[in-house]
Every structure is written in C-alpha cells, then in structure tokens.
Design a protein that fits this description.
155 residues, 7 strands
C-alpha cells in the first residue's frame, strides 16, 4: 500500500528538513539558499508535503505587491519526485494566496512544463519590477538570468 501524502502549513520543527532540502537545490544552482534563521523568520510562509511524518517537499509564498505573490523554494526530496507532490504544493500555495487576497501568482523557474501543467502561462520577467528590485538586484545571475517567468491569475 502506497503511503498517503499530505500538505500542511510548515512549523518551526520543519526548519531543519527545509534547510537541508533547499541547500541541496542551492548547491545545484537551481534555488536560492535560505539560512536557518531566515527559514525560522519566514516559516509561516511555507507549506510542506509530508509522507509518514517525513517532510518530502516544500514551497513558500513571498508577497511582492498589492496583488502579486511569488512561489519560491518549491522542491521535492530525492526519491519522491514524480508522485504529484509538486502539484499538491502549488495547489496549496495558490489556495493560500487566494485566502490572502493575492490574485496574481508568479514564479521564476527552469521547470516551465510543470507550471504550464498547473495552469500558469509564460510571461516576460520585466512585468514584475517588484521582483527585480527586491531579489534579482542581489542575484549573481542578475544580468544573465536563465529562469523563465510564469504567471497564474486567480479569480
């Protein structure tokens, strides 16, 4: 019997597994690193996917403007990919955005097909000056960004 996956709000007890998962992606150059201290401060913005009490996925929301929120730190632990956990997390994050009255959800990604499958469309990065001035200005890839911007408008 396959174990049942569930998504839930992250808690302070999740900081260490979140840190390890994000650090793994960061070393591969596909996610910005997050310190344990930052994760503790931003834990209320994270959701996790869990199987049998083990955190196997994560994602967070970062408010960028009046109606705009970014999905970030979206990842699945090795050995758990391909089970629909990423889509579960995106669904949970979109639900959370709606609860916060944020109706534009964006992400910068290398996994365009995943986001297209989840109802996003590809857009120009330049339509998000909020993102450019808050994060991109500090990124090593600032002038040669190879990530693709995606957007989902909620109703």
């Amino acid at each position: 019997m396959q174990a049942v996956a569930m998504c839930r709000q992250a808690t302070i007890e999740d900081v260490e597994p979140l840190y390890i998962m994000i650090e793994n992606y960061s070393r591969q150059g596909i996610m910005l690193p997050r310190s344990r201290a930052v994760l503790e401060r931003q834990i209320h913005d994270f959701v996790v996917a869990e199987i049998d009490g083990i955190v196997v996925g994560c994602g967070s929301l970062c408010k960028l403007g009046e109606e705009l929120v970014e999905i970030r730190s979206l990842g699945i632990a090795e050995g758990y990919k391909g089970r629909g956990l990423g889509s579960m997390l995106v669904e949970q994050l979109v639900h959370e955005a709606k609860k916060r009255s944020l109706f534009k959800v964006m992400a910068l990604t290398y996994e365009v097909s995943f986001f297209l499958k989840n109802g996003f469309t590809v857009v120009e990065k330049e339509i998000f000056p909020e993102k450019v001035w808050t994060d991109c200005v500090n990124c090593a890839k600032q002038h040669a960004c190879d990530e693709i911007a995606v957007l989902k408008i909620l109703n």
